[in-house]
Amino acid sequence: MEIDGYKATIEYDPEIEMYRGEFVRLNGGSDFYAADIEGLRREGAASLRVFLEACQKRGIEPRKPYSGKFNVRMPTEMHAGIAEPPLSYEPESGESTIDSKVRSH
After folding, report:
1. For labelling, which of 3, 15, 73, 74 has a CA lying 20 to 30 Å from the CA of 57?
2. What is the largest CA-CA distance in the chain?
3. Residue 8: which of 39, 34, 41, 35 has the closest Cα?
């Protein structure tokens, strides 16, 4: 679900028989509960508004910052296939190399 440009995951909680939404990629937590989709949108908007107001008062960036670094574990053969250039090699950026190699696996 997306509310005002912020994405949230939605899960059903059978213990309370309600849906629980939680905004992702925030620099803190903001969740909300409702029995239906309309309620989720309403409660989500209210929860997000409170979160954003708190961030503004404290001078905090609401979205989680990302460094651009990405660490991943993979099988050694896959790592070797990405790291070792083929016999006929055309230089390309590391980003496009990883993208093409990952998509082929």
Report:
1. 3
2. 60
3. 41
